[in-house]
Amino acid sequence: MPDERLRFQEFGFQRLANGRCRAKVVLTWSDGRRFEGASDGVSSQTGELRCCAVAAVNALEQAVSPRLTFELLGVKAVRAFDATVVIVSLSAHAEEATRLVGS
């Protein structure tokens, strides 16, 4: 059975001098196909998390296009077991919407 899992390949993040931030996420399939998502946002604690999540969602949409589209509903950093975990809520749209939550 082939490995059909989408892999997190690369992440880049910059805080810009104008109070903004920029994120880049690269996802790959096992056959080497590469999908890059990018986003600009406000440089604040919540703004930076959202910027990174939007970049990841943009890459994800490219990887599964045209079957699914996604809407980022929320992103939050939570402290658990001496580590910070980022939780994301998405709405996946195919023929009908499905809510997804993951970390």
Name the CATH architecture: 2-Layer Sandwich
Q: What is the chain-wise order of helices and strands?
A: EEEHEEE
Strand content: over 45%
Work out the count of structural domains: 1
The gyration radius over C-alpha positions equals 14 Å
The shape is: globular
Flag low-confidence runs: none
Helix content: 10-25%
In round numbers, the mean pLDDT is 93
Tell how many strands the DSSP assignment holds: 6
By CATH reckoning, the class would read Alpha Beta
CATH topology, anyone?
Answer: Double Stranded RNA Binding Domain
Placed side by side, the strands forming the largest sheet appear as 1-2-3
Terminal residue distance: 26 Å
The number of helical runs is 1
Q: What is the structural class?
A: alpha+beta
Largest sheet properties: 3 strands, antiparallel
Descriptive notes:
- With 103 residues, the chain is α+β, with helices and mostly antiparallel strands.
- The protein has a single domain (7-102), classed as Double Stranded RNA Binding Domain.
- 19% of the residues lie in helices and 54% in strands.
- The chain is built from one helix and six strands.
- It has one helix spanning 45-64; strands at residues 7-15, 20-28, 34-42, 69-80, 83-93, 97-102.
- The strands form two sheets. The protein has a three-stranded antiparallel sheet with strand order 1-2-3, covered by helices on one side.
- A hairpin with a 3-residue loop joins strand 5 and strand 6 (97-102).
- The protein is globular and about 35 Å long.
- The model has no long low-confidence stretch (mean pLDDT 93).
